[in-house]
Amino acid sequence: MNIIVLAKHAPDPESEIRVGEDGKSVDQRGLVYDINDWDRYAIEEAIQIKEDKGGEVVVVGVGTACEDTLRKCLAMGADRAIKIPYDSTLDAYQTAEVIKEAIKDENYDLIIAGYQSQDLNNALVGSLLAGMLGLPCATAVTALEVEDSSIRVKRELEGGYNEEVVLPLPCLITVQSGINEPRYVSIMGIKRAKTKELKEVSLQPSLSTLEIDKVYLPPVKKAEMIEGSPDEVAKKLIEILKERGLV
Q1: Contacts of 177 (CB under 8 A, 6+ apart)
Q2: pLDDT tens-digit readout, 6-34
Q3: Domains along the chain with CATH numbers
Q4: CA 99 to each of CA 22, 46, 63, 152, 223: distance values in angstroms, whole numbers, following the listed order
Q5: Minimal CA–CA distance to 22: which of 242, 213, 221, 151?
Q6: Which contiguous run of DSSP H or E holds residue 194?
Q7: Burial class (CB in 10 A: 0-12, 13-18, 19+), 1
Q8: What is the pLDDT of residues 33-91, one digit of tens each?
């Protein structure tokens, strides 16, 4: 079974975020990058399917600096990688479009992506790519079973509900964190990754669907320290709550 996995090179959510000098971008200084957490589960799921069914796992990354993430996926067990050196910033449509062009000649049965990215949380690229390729799609998958010519998946819905769906192959799914337990990268895996194919495909999207007007940090509200005796503090708290219409 041939599987394509989308893997994003994303900044750590704990990194300190600064707005760029142009006011429309994020300052890259100080950001620590790694494989997007949801995509870690996607690559693990693909490798488990390959180990059970045979076939090939191809990992695709978008961005000029995504090679480290692709090498990590190869070390986990992916067979080869495709790097698209284009930085689409916040435009999910452009990301999906260049991926579509990069894989148009690939022979695949299944495309797996993480449910969302840890930096933007848009959960758009997988669904957009499925639409561009005309593939059936299921999002937020928490369990799956590959059948003869289809895949049976369990989807996470709101309110604690789940949905079971059967999709014909080929199809695209996005997986939730917790669908499996991603393996650690071994020393032998790292050595083998150096010998695996990492092909670079230069592509440009045909259009832009997003115009950035301004990027800014959310306003910080300062805390007011109330001092005095317990009675004085309680009285002041009641006054504040009344002023704000909360009591």
Answers
A1: 37, 38, 41, 114, 115
A2: 999 999 888 888 898 899 888 888 889 99
A3: 2-200 (3.40.50.620)
A4: 28, 18, 11, 25, 46
A5: 213
A6: none
A7: middle
A8: 999 999 999 999 999 999 999 999 999 999 999 999 999 999 999 999 999 999 987 89
